[in-house]
Amino acid sequence: MLKGLAAVLGVALLGMGWAGCEQAYFPVKEGWVWTYKSSPEGKTQTMRFSGVSPAGFTYVTQLSNGSVETRWKCEAGGLAALEFASSNLGGQNQSVNFKTVGRKGVMLPNTLGVGSQWSYSFTLEGAMSGGTLTDHMETLNKAVGLETITVPAGTFKALKVESTSTLKMGMNVGGKTRDLPSNTIQSTSWYAKGVGMVKSVTAGVTLELVSLKK
């Protein structure tokens, strides 16, 4: 689920960022294309922005089996995703199409720097055979320091962000509600000024920046 995050989503000013959405560690530039490679799978994915305006933008991730688009809003406190990136979840026997019914917080604050702490959460609901599922995900983040990171795209001085995501699910079948086992996932991301995310490690999967086309 989080891997679909993750992450984590204006023709008139192609190649330029809007001041309302611009951040040092997360440049919102229409026309730029970020290419990442994951390990151990070895799969490649690209990320770009579309429809950039002072109010928000669309974050587009192109995967090998299709694309994921999420709408973001440029708020006073930072950049906020309006929906969770991955909406198709399920076990071996069925898949559940979730929709975002609630959100709080920003994905990245405007005051991002060493020592910054923030949180965001999403509440999702989906229909399944005979009932409904509710999923609440809350992520706590802390920028712990600056590190020199080397990835295929080069060597960067990057801000290290440690995150803890807690997922709590509930099931309602036949009018009876029960809680499902919760799950906690640790992740670490590195952001370079003027570049964006250069590396992330989540649930044993490493994502590294291969190239940035401007």
From TrEMBL:
Domain DUF3108: 136-200
InterPro entries: DUF3108-like
Pfam families: DUF3108_like
Keywords: Signal
Name this polypeptide is given: DUF3108 domain-containing protein
Organism of derivation: Meiothermus granaticius NBRC 107808
Superkingdom classification of source: Bacteria
Record has Signal as a keyword: yes
Signal peptide: 1-24
